[in-house]
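Much of our argument rests on the idea that a fold can be written as discrete symbols. In the encoding step, the backbone of a single protein was reduced to a row of integers, each denoting a local shape. This step matters because it turns folding into a mapping between discrete strings. For completeness, the protein is quoted in full, as a sequence line and a line of structure tokens:
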Amino acid sequence: MARRSSSTFKKRQKEMARQERRQDKEARRIQRKKERDERGTVIPPGEDPDIAGIRPGPQPPREDE
């Protein structure tokens, strides 16, 4: 009687784990995209998003100081 090695079973389990991780990752990507779209922060065209909302001049003191 010939016995099958357990490597075939391990290989299948490994591939199934890969597919599951891939699906989880894709689901997280879709969720993040949906959350970004729902937030919908509107930045006027031509304004740099890194400095949006910053007022020139002295800034008010931080709350924790």
Q: What stands out?
A: The chain has one helix and no strands. The two ends are 79 Å apart (CA to CA).
